[in-house]
Structures are given as structure tokens and as C-alpha cells.
């Protein structure tokens, strides 16, 4: 398919869309001409206890300081709950669909408000307050959303931790954040399997996490789990006893709302700090604009709440806008293929937001599976997390959207807080594989490796020239790392780490990470993280990790390890185990090669580009080998990997 292939906005969609081309142009012009005025106007979408009088006071120069709506005061949970009570207290805020068809819960805004207040009171009762960090380690159950909003209510920062992290991965993040309390569950259901959340959390705390005073344990499957006297508390009875209302803490716009860990090209995962005011404006603004939100929508974002997509588009964006969210505990194909389609029909989902890795795996089912379902409630489809190939895009559009629903391919990152580049669906015709155009107020640019600005058509590094309200403010405990990671590539620009091409229509085509970050099924993994955990096993001298294309996962991880003594048995398994223990199951390498040495430049830098090509059996274009300290390594590596599949 060529870049020229354009999918016009389906007329039935255009006829009722909230924002058309003319309106979008107006917004884009207004945001560029007078950003201060534009964003102060957009701040009006929230309820403030004190309206802000200034919008941006941000600077990407020098120390880097990002501030929005600095004199405003508000509470995020009030914006997601209390302010809707008068008008839509009896409207469904959250539909929970459990793994089994019969497990369904529907909560009105009033009911959700009450649940959040109870949880907030439990936390306050334990002495948790403004500025404290609370780790949330829960499956996709109602209490996950409730716990996030409860933290927001009392001004504590939530740190949501993925259920797939290993004990070591959890301990690192708990220690870095200094969490005072952990909210976990006995177990999570995952298809026929059970994940022992509490046990993994016990192991994490046993590694030494002195800041954690309390562990609250929610009963999900009802398994009897050992409780540590003085530290662990059964959460379910505490919630039942707690008072059903709780005064919200008044927060400054710049008070952090949460920390969320993500991986970079160097070092350990970093806790990105998101603000209260700017983040909430961005979540609400982008959710309404990109998903053409209107009353009556049932919004299903399939992301786990432990990822930024879950924060912004399962919880904060749609609830700030008074929407109805669907929270699904299960898997796409459990108990049988077509489960997701069944959920869409059952709950009359209008807006369905998922990831290319899921789309690719669903495409593999017989088309009869998706065709069996009506899917006639769907109005709009969305994709996020990695580049979507044109064939997956078209399948999503035709087989799922029945040609009637626009597909919004949304580009953003943990650091950006919300969507930056995406087609506003009633205004921008789509090209499969392109995230299309920056949203109003987003000044995207392409820079060369040397930091020179590329005008017009071209390809380069995707950077942003001006702050936007949803931008992460800093790295928890590491402002200098923040400045260095994102603002030193080219001073004055936010560096995304992604490459992109811009076509003649100004559309952006994200080509993927240009740094040492790989994207496995939408999970960001730093190659340095992988290398560090393998290196802690002294049977290895060193190792290098690279990403290679993978049919379903997008990228898969391949590890090249140099053993101290190659005659020791089972070393490849040992390297693999080091990765799953140090990071989590989701990072399991596709292949581990035990090699005699790694290719390095004369200055000792590992040449990952070469390893990637060899791992992909692309032996024709190995490129310039003259920079290698020892060029004979190439043939020895090929001998291990094999010439072709
Ligand atoms: C990285 C950010 C944004 C929430 C989920 C991932 C890749 C994200 C797209 C897209 C091409 C994309 C980028 C980005 N990415 N969306 N629509 N097209 N690539 O958040 O874990 O912070 O990862 O995901 O490489 O840098 P994240």
C-alpha cells in the first residue's frame, strides 16, 4: 500500500463529529497564536477551587522547568467524580466485566464516588497523606481504579506497578519511590492461571524495602494468604467499615498526581512525575478531541492500568469527561477466541482503543470469529503503543470497524502524559500506518542527528519544540537525569527517542525508537536493564541485548552473552532466567546466543546494529566493519547464530 492511500472520514461519522476540519484549524491557529489564552481557556474544562490565572511558565532551557497553571488549585478525584454527581450521579461511570461472562458490575458515578471515599478513608486511617507515595499492585478489578482515585483524593501519589514485574523489579521501584503503603491482592486471574500477587509482593518486601509500613491485601480469588502481623491488613473488611464520604485534599496544580516507572536507554527504570493540573487538562482535552467523546459513549481502552495508557485513557480522561468506562479483567481469547468481540457486543462499546500487538494476534484468528459478532455499537477505533503496519490497520478498519469507524493511530509516551500526534477523527483523513498530525498546541519537529531542523518532507528524530500541559515534570529523585535524557540532544527541544518521517501532507510516520529501547508487545524495555540483570550472574563476562522484529510482539528480545566458562551447562537458560527474575516474565528473551565475544569499536562500544543484523540473518548489509576492534568476530558470531533460517 502506498503512502498516498487515504481513508476519507466516513460520511456517517463526519455528520455527527464534534470537531470538523474548520474547527480543528481554528483551534490549531489559536493555540499557536496565543498559547497562554488558549490553554487558560482549556483549563476551564476542569473544576478548580482556585482558577489559574497563568498557563505556561515552562522553559526547556538551562535547568528545564515545566510548570502549568501554577496558581490554580484543584483535586483530580473531585474532577473525575464529585463534579458529576449533580448532573449524572445515576449514570454508569464504570462497567466491570470479569473474566467469566457472569461477573459484571455496573457502578454509577455515585457508587464509584462512595467506593473511592471508603478507600481514601482507609488510607487516611493509616496515616497516609499529602505527598506520600502509595504503590498499587492490583489486577484489572474495580479497586484498581478506586485506589488510584483514592490516592488522588487525599493528595498521595500513586505508583501503579504491573502485575508482571518480578519481585526484584517491584523492590527497585518501591525503594526508588519510597512508597509507604502497598495495595495488592491475594491473586490475579489470568485465563486458567492464577498469579500469586501477594506472594511476589512478600518476596519484594523481603528484599528490603524499609519505607513500606503497610500492605493492604484485597480479596480477589479469596485464597488464604499468609499475613504478616503488624504490616499486612485485609483490605476488603476495612473498606466495608470505612465511612462513605471523605473530604478531598486541595492540591496545587503543580503538586504531583502520580509517579509511573518507564524504561530508558540507560540505567534503571525512571519514575516519571506527572502533575495534577496540567495532566488533568491534557487527559480531558485529548480524550474529548481524539475520541470525539460525547454523552452515552462506552469507552473501552484495553490497556492495563499499570501503564500510562491505563492512567490517562482508562481512568482520568474519560472520567474527567463524565464518560462510561469499561474495565475488562480477562484476556482477548479466553475462554475462546472472539472474547473481546463478545464484550463489545454485550456492553455496547462505542469506542475501542487497543494496541497493534493485540490486533496482530487477533488477525490470526479465522475471520469467521470476528464476523460472528455484530459490533454495531462501535463508532471509533484507536491504536497505541507501537507503529501499526498498514495491513493491521486495514484489517482493524474493515473486519472490526466494518469500514464505518475511523481508526485513530495515536502517538505518545509515558513522558507525554497523553496523546500528542493523532488524527482528530472528524477532521483529518487517515493514512494507514501514519499517526497523522500533531494536536493543537503540539509543536512537533524533526531534527537531524546533529540537531538541525528539517523543513518539509523528510525523516529524522521526532522532537517537540514547546511544552504542553500534560508533559512529565521531572524524574523522581533525578532532575538532572531528566534534563540530560530529554533535553540535551538538541537544547530547547524535548527529545522523544523516536524516529519519524514527514510526508508531503505534513503527516508523521513513526518509524520506531532510535535509542536502545525496545518495544515488546507495547512494553518498553531498556537494553541496558537487560544487560545489567544478566551481568549480575557471575557466570557471564558481559552481554548485549537487541530487539528484532517479531510477528506478534512487534519486537522480540535477543541476548548475546559471553560466558566466563563456556563448558558450564545450561548457560542460555541461566541468562534467560536472570532476565525474567530481574525484570519480569514479559521480558523473556526469544533467543540467547552464547558467543565468544561481542563486536566492539576500538573505543570499546558494543556495536548493537551489527548484532541486530546478525540476529535477523541479514548478512548482506552488515555495513562498514572497519570501526570494529576485531573484524574476525563477525564470522564467529555468524557461526553461532547461523546464516539464515
Ligand atoms: C513509545 C512509548 C503511549 C502509551 C503507550 C506506550 C511507541 C507509542 C505509538 C504509535 C508508533 C508508538 C514509541 C514511543 N509508540 N505509540 N502510535 N506509533 N509508535 O507508552 O511505554 O511510554 O512507550 O511507544 O516508540 O516512544 P510507552
Automatic annotation (TrEMBL):
Molecular functions (GO terms): acetate-CoA ligase activity; AMP binding; ATP binding
Domain Acetyl-coenzyme A synthetase N-terminal: 25-80
PROSITE patterns xrefs: AMP_BINDING
Domain named AMP-dependent synthetase/ligase: residues: 82-467
Similarity comment: family membership: Belongs to the ATP-dependent AMP-binding enzyme family.
Keyword line: Acetylation, ATP-binding, Ligase, Nucleotide-binding
Domain of life (superkingdom): Bacteria
Organism: Gluconacetobacter asukensis
EC number of this enzyme: 6.2.1.1
NCBIfam families: Ac_CoA_lig_AcsA, PRK00174.1
InterPro entries documented for this protein: Ac_CoA_lig, ACAS_N, AMP-bd_C, AMP-bd_C_sf, AMP-binding_CS, AMP-dep_synth/lig_dom, ANL_N_sf
Keyword Repeat part of the UniProt annotation: no
GO biological-process terms attached to the record: acetyl-CoA biosynthetic process from acetate
Protein name per its UniProtKB record: Acetate--CoA ligase
Keyword ATP-binding annotated: yes
AMP-binding enzyme C-terminal domain mapped to chain residues: 529-605
Broadest EC class assigned to this enzyme: ligase
